[in-house]
Amino acid sequence: MFSQPRFRKSAPQYVAATAAAALLLTLGACSSDDGGGGGEGGDKPYVALVSKGFQHQFWQAVKKGADDAAAELDVEVTFEGPETETEVDKQLSMLQTALDKSPDALGFAALDSEASIPLMTDAQSRGIPVIAFDSGVESDVPVTTVSTDNVAAAAEAAKHMAELTGGEGKIAVLGHDQTSQTGQQRVSGFVDYIESEAPGLEIVDVQYAGGDQLKSADAAKSILQANPDLVGIYGTNEGAATGVVKAVQELGKAGDLTVIGFDSGKAQLDAIKDGTMAGAITQNPVGIGYETVKAAVAAIDGEQVEPEIDSGFFWYDKDTMDDPEIAEVLYE
After folding, report:
1. For residues 237 and 176, is the Cβ–Cβ distance under 8 A?
2. Radius of gyration of the chain (CA)
């Protein structure tokens, strides 16, 4: 679906037949330094990454992986995103700014899968390979998508919800958004598993709060107050899950129901340690950043890139969170 011809940008050509040619060439070189092929004036390939935000520590971990790959592969990388994961317009503006710098490759984690398509198509028309990361898009523009298998990960969360609740009772879902593939898949994967494999569990509510911790806490309180007999609730990202934890604590319901989250972060790790949260799914954020830059460099060099790169996931709880394989992908 995502396979596209790989592109390598060609250097600007300047043609002059008079004594002004030297001036034109000088100006052309300065223009090149301001944009692609080295980003800020260097000779290294330049990869621009636009994430969903900096609201959660998850994105700092993705950035670390990208920086690690940049150092190893000797490329220049910039990494930016809006303050929160609800600012679609701001993210699109950042994407436009990144394109205007004419990078050698572009990495993009879409907040809105459809709204970003025109700009990605523009990148393709300029010969700039696009790497989708964390969340895919409904387009064949990206040469690859580096992400967690969110449907499978959500199903794993649902499996543990069924086991920990005994497969009976009312549960709810607090999602982070309805516009990204990540947001959609982490809900659908969970719901589909419950409906097919745990029919004794009834999903009484599915709400969305933009991944914001405070809004998620308010939404979770509303769900809990409307359903005092709830036996479980699932939050689909760091912000949603942390909001659920806050709501459960503030309503004095810690230990009364099964709370399952997604991602990590200090608040979730603490909640798992003290028993407020039963466990969570962790992605491999450092791996996502690393593989995104690695794929971008391969695309710049005209190499074949797999259309999808699965960065993996783990279920973790109080008993397994210190296992070396899991501990290395958790972040605070």
Report:
1. yes
2. 22
Q: What is the DSSP string of 104-118?
A: SEEEE--SSTTTTHH
User: Do β-strands 279-282 and 314-317 pair in parallel, antiparallel, or remain unpaired?
Assistant: antiparallel
258-311 pLDDT per residue, tens: 999 999 999 999 999 999 999 999 999 999 999 999 999 999 999 999 999 999
Rounded to an integer, what distance in angstroms lies between the CA atom of residue 88 and that of residue 95?
10
> What number of other Cβ atoms are within 10 A of residue 16's Cβ?
12
φ, ψ of residue 36 to 5 degrees: the values are: -75, 180
> Alpha-carbon distance 179 to 176, whole Å?
9
| C-beta atoms surrounding 72 within 10 Å | 12
| Coil, strand or helix at 329 | coil
The rounded distance, in Å, linking the Cα atoms of 146 and 184 is: 17
Residues 137, 181: contact at Cβ < 8 Å? yes
Entry field: residues in the chain = 332
C-alpha closest to that of 278 among 162, 191, 174, 189: 162
β pairing state of 169-175 and 258-262:
unpaired
Distance CA 222, CA 228 (A): 10
Q: What share of the chain is helix, strand, coil (3-state, %, to 5)?
A: 45, 20, 40
What is the residue type of 220?
A: A
Rounded Cα–Cα distance for residues 314 and 320 (Å): 10
42-83 per-position pLDDT tens digit:
689 999 999 998 767 889 989 999 999 999 999 999 999 999
Strand partners, 106: 48, 130
146 three-class SS: strand
Please give the structure tokens belonging to residue 14. Answer: 């300047």
